[in-house]
Amino acid sequence: DTEVTQTPKHLVMGMTNKKSLKCEQHMGHRAMYWYKQKAKKPPELMFVYSYEKLSINESVPSRFSPECPNSSLLNLHLHALQPEDSALYLCASSQALSYNEQFFGPGTRLTVL
Amino acid sequence: GESVGLHLPTLSVQEGDNSIINCAYSNSASDYFIWYKQESGKGPQFIIDIRSNMDKRQGQRVTVLLNKTVKHLSLQIAATQPGDSAVYFCAENINYGQNFVFGPGTRLSVLP
User: Fold this and answer.
1) Predicted pLDDT at B29
2) A46 and A110 Cβ atoms separated by less than 8 Å
3) DSSP code of residue B6
4) What is the b/e burial string over B95-105, where b = at least 16 CB atoms within 10 angstroms of the residue's CB?
5) Burial bucket for residue A2 (CB in 10 Å: 0-12, 13-18, 19+)
6) Distances from the Cα of B84 to the Cαs of A41, A93, B10, B39, B111, in angstroms?
7) Cα separation of B57 and B77, whole Å?
8) What is the tens place of the pLDDT at every residue in B39-96?
9) What is the pLDDT of residue B25?
10) Of B43, B89, B105, the CB nearest to A106
């Protein structure tokens, strides 16, 4: 299995809702990432986990809360989002940090009403 | 702040011709670079990488060139095919491999 899966594929939520994005990989990778990508823009790094510990938080607002329950799973919990948070949320994994190819999932298209 | 950028936002080439996509970077401490291809509705897909101790690296139909003197990176695609149509991003590795900064991207369109 050489892919990163993300669910759901699409998500529409109101500003008062709580929802979660899920990412899974079974490649034995120990680094996992969340990126945000707005239309016609490059991906922007949000969080990095290494060996299930948060390694980097790129000054992301607290309404985004990451969680890494085990080495194969990565969640992104969403609460009280704003319409400007609407974007494609990409998950990626790599064997480890440092000079390793990142494998990306197809993303979750999030719309905040 | 320092960032990765691209010379051309869009590129159209005839099928069968070679394509060259350019990228300028400004962080002299960057020592690892990746080219990604992103098709519509999909996540970025790894194409090829290069470390700063190399000037050139070749893959299947693709070549990456790195010129550290002028902080320039390029991706060459030989015999461009319709399936090569996508947005191409260069990504610059900083912070000892912990995170990547992506350039703004170039859209490649292959004309029949």
Assistant:
1) 85
2) no
3) -
4) eebbbbbbbbb
5) exposed
6) 19, 24, 13, 9, 11
7) 12
8) 998 999 999 999 999 999 999 999 999 999 999 999 999 999 999 999 999 999 876 6
9) 86
10) B43
Mapping DSSP to helix (H, G, I), strand (E, B) and coil, where does residue A48 land? strand
Q: Which residue has the tokens 């095919």?
A: B81
What pLDDT is attached to residue B5? 53
Residue A24 DSSP code: E
**Does A43 sit within 8 Å of B89, measured CB to CB?**
yes
Residues of chain A contacting B49 with CB distance shorter than 8 Å: 101
Structure tokens at A85: 């948070």
Q: Is the pLDDT of residue B12 over 50?
A: yes
Q: Using a CB-CB distance cutoff of 8 angstroms, which residues of chain B are in contact with residue A42?
A: 89, 102-105
pLDDT (mean) for B28-47? 93
Q: Which helix (H) or strand (E) holds A110?
A: strand A108-112
Structure-token match 């008062």, residue found: A16
